[in-house]
User: Fold these one by one.
Assistant:
Number 1:
Amino acid sequence: MRYLLVEDNQELSEAVVNRLALDGHAVDHAANLAEAEDYLATAQYDLILLDVMLPDGDGREFLARSRTRLETPVIVLTAQSQVSDRVGALDRGADDYITKPFDFSELEARCRAVLRRRGGSARNEIVLGDAIFDPLAGTLSHDGACTELRNREIRLLEVFARSPGQILSKSQLMDRLFSYDTQVTENAIEVYVGRLRRRIDGMGVRIETVRGVGYRMEAGAP
């Protein structure tokens, strides 16, 4: 999944980016609201982590102004612990908040919870054909066997699983899997899709190539 982190504290930003990258997420970092606007104008994000106090404005006000055009879920990062501050962030359109300093495991759990709610699910597991996919554990369970996936395979399968029947182009998949700092070509997507196809073979779900357009995940055998 691809995240946008809007945070001016460089040390904290590096720590968050590195931690989320360990789980296979692609993270772009904006140090202020102007940079955030530039990123949002050119890429699609699954989740935004938004600081409150930024050099060029208040993140909550930015969120309130953006909600008419921005549907991406947002978790507000705040050092303010008053109930009124947290309520204000939620009323302005935040999906959740976390108070600094925070534990990275809590941040990761809140990210997962927000994405589950946006996907209409209360559980981590996703049913794919005859298999059960657990993005948190990084496993595919089928016919009594459990297969462990690599990080990039997990995130690619998660993108397909949360967009059933939707055609996704190679460029869209690149946007969802890689940050701007990562130099990749569309050939990398072909490689990862090929690996994923081998993983799900015989599980009652397939990744179909839509010639000249992209890929689509559907239930059923080829």
Note: The first helix runs from residue 10 to 22.
Number 2:
Amino acid sequence: MPAGKWLAVARVAKLFGREGELSLTLSDTFPDIYPLSEPLFVEIDGLAVPLFFEHFNRRGKNGATVRFADIDTQRRASELIGHELYLSDSPLADPDDEEEADEDEIYLEDLVGYEALLGSGHRGIIEEFIDSDNPLFRLSVDGQEALIPAVDAFIAEIDTDAHTLTFDLPEGLLELYLS
């Protein structure tokens, strides 16, 4: 990076979508509370290029999916794959001034082991969260394996006290695995 102090906080891992979305691997140095109005920087041709967030979704402790402003195609996004992302030495906003992180926030991989309530009297156990371009839950249901897309549209309720996840699945999806 150019002169000045820089802190490596992430690496661009892969594409995550069709409109410039990327999957990041976050370093332990990535702040727990980060003001998304502040850019990350990438070194291109010896210059520190700022990347401003349009979208940031943390995925577990060491992952995130992002979309940066002005990176709106797979081609442009693919140019960043493998690059380190940095914070500048400029002070970040005081975490005490930021809203506290939602203590009830739960990540999809935290749901492994939860009981899955699937409707029609079917119950199962979430055996695995598969983090991929199309994230999935691998369930054990009535002795059968079922793969359910891990999308908000299919999740009706998460009860962290009872360790249950209630699904609202499209008709016929579960039957593909149980027939």
Note: The chain has a mean pLDDT of 84.
Number 3:
Amino acid sequence: MKQLKLTFLFAAFCLTLTLGGQTYRHISGWSQEINDRIEDYLNSTLTMNVRKVAVFDSDGTTFGQVPHYLADEALYRYADVVLKERKDKEAREKLKILDRMVKDGNNVGKPYVEDRVHFLAGLSPEEIEMIGYECYRESYRNKTYPEMKQLVANLKEYGFEVYILTASPEFLYQKFVAEEYGIPVTNVLGAKCVVKNGITTGEIIPPIPQDDGKAHTIETFIKTRPLIVGGNSRGDMDMLNESAGLKIVVNPDDVTVRGPEDGPMSGLTVKSYWEKEGAIIVRCNDVRDPNVRFHTEEWKIRANRANPK
């Protein structure tokens, strides 16, 4: 009996150590109420015997998208700096693709998103990686949201796998996103293409993490329902609704009233919809740096709305 009691006490002690091993660190810049909600939820996951996964959108959720998406800036910057100096057939064909994208104008539409992959086809994954990385270092290095980095640090403390999704070409984002957030490059998922003999092709591997494709990407490649999902736009609605726990929405639009094509969001702004759904609404500073030249602007691609905190 005495031995049984000692065994029980030892097991209880070990459990206490296990549950007490995680320490939540206050996220500066967000209110105490928001911190309390996040901390309470993370503590509720301590005894869960499941894969603990958090999934976040990329542009506008983990780093700034003002005045332009990094994917666009990377491509138009590459065209200005590299392609316009060349006279070969490949350069001319790539510039034609950009002209088509400019004429399209809808840089969140499926054809435009696919054309980003087509533009980069023929380069190696390493070359594409460096195009994205150099663009980030030159124009976006101060646009990673510090609050989101603190959130991800807390998630790691609580044993979460963290994934970041983008509709942009996967190779373009993997290096800088993985470096900034300290996650494996394989946890940065984007538009995928077939690679043959070390060279990328224009053959796209579905699903593209765009609109409902983000939810399908979770099912296809992450293969579990996430406990936490974060996004910022109408395009993240399907992904956010995959969350089995917290939904975190960054800088949601409160100006545009969505139409019938937006399903359950019809008649509401993005912000009012997620407030109704009980999501955590957070603010991160996303404004233009006047000292940075944006090539995208010179190609007359529409700018994203600023979100001063």
Note: The beta strands are 53-57, 161-169, 188-196, 199-205, 228-231, 246-250, 280-282.
Number 4:
Amino acid sequence: MNKKSFTLIEMVLVTTILAVIAVAVAPYITIALDSWVVNKTERNLVFSARLATNRMVREMREIKDTASITTFTSTEFEFMDINDNTINYQQSTSLLLRNFDELTDQLQDPGGLTFTYLDSSGNPTATKNDIRMVRITLVLISGDISIAIESLAKLRNVG
């Protein structure tokens, strides 16, 4: 009889070779998966930060006038827009709040939200009547990954 089959030694040899190949390739697969997770996390942080800053800039451009700015610290900004709506931005722990509604929950705590008030020349100012622009800096964090986004709101109705 002429049966074709594998011997036990051949099976063990093939299994051993496949195991060696798997051990050699596994670190590369792990690195690729880790890179994908980091990249996805960074993209999500950037998306969240851009969404928040775009909204903030859009609303800040609608400030009624400098007299309608009620709070302007490095961590809180409150003003009245052209429709007489009061808008407040501030950080509470890891939350970015707009009128106490959450825009994102991934701010670095502390220091995830910073406002810098600028005059018409782009220099920092502490005088409310001189504010012409507001620089917004957001630092978002997720695990070991953090990103910083900065945006500038030029106030339309002042000056």
Note: Residues 8-154 form one domain.
